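Each field is listed here:
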Amino acid sequence: MSARRGSSPRRSRPAGCLVFLLVVVLIIIAALLLWYLLAGRLKVPGPGPTPPEPPASQPADCPDVQFLSVPGTWESNSDDDPHNPTANPVSLMINVSGPIAERFPAERVDVYTVPYVAQFSNPIAIPPDGQQSYNNSRSEGTARAIDLLTTVHERCPLTSYVIVGFSQGAVIAGDIAAQIGAGDGPVPAELVLGVTLIADGRRAADTEGAAITIGTEPAGVGAEVALKGLNVPGITMTGPREGGFGELAGRVYTMCAPGDLICDAPRDALSPANIMGSVLTLTRAVGNPVHSLYNGYVVDDSGTTATGWTVNWAAGLIEGAPRPPHS
């Protein structure tokens, strides 16, 4: 029997593999730690600075209440006197601002009527009617109203506000109220005593945060809601106000006479698809008889008219408004 050939001993590799794997794991862990350290930790911001406390008093010439009136289409012009408006002697808003100015002294309430172009050009008129477009008019009215509110609040931080608008002016006043209610306006919501919108072109009673209706609740919606999406030169229909009036919802009131196409437009009567017909209907609606008769439109069983109700409402707010110290 021959002798067994000698063979080389088996090499044991497990220990070497383990060492290699351990080194790889350590390298990966070190790389991850280095990655996190270099990338930095998220620094969550702490509480912001506490807003400054309101001052104890305000300048002696500041009114306790600022009354802001925004007239409707063809009821103002850019150069009108905001404290003695004469651009249109039969302006609907004079039936509100006038009695308020007569009833209270200037130190109690400053009555300011926003002077703006207040026009609504028919973009398809031939020849052109020579008026400013709705977009330009509305933009100027909004800017001037916001400038006044901003200026007053910066100088008179304890002054309260009452805001009223009619027609195009109701759209402007309502848009500013919606901004204030959302916390993005020129004055804090807590300083706004109330807002009334007469014939608001963005009226949408079935939306969240909508205004409280005084008088009859028409079945239709504002022309800008019915025509949402219409965008022709000079006329942009912006639809309902998303989110309504926010924090101001319980302090905003609206009035709309049934049949007034500015605020009571049938949802399917105006269509962006029928641009020519819709624009003609809209421009005629601005001067329709129902739209011009709010001084006689009765809103309650006592025979109170829209303007009469607004005067009584505003006067009640002004009488009960805070009387901040002056220095």
Notes: The longest strand covers residues 160-166. The radius of gyration is 33 Å. The mean pLDDT is 87.
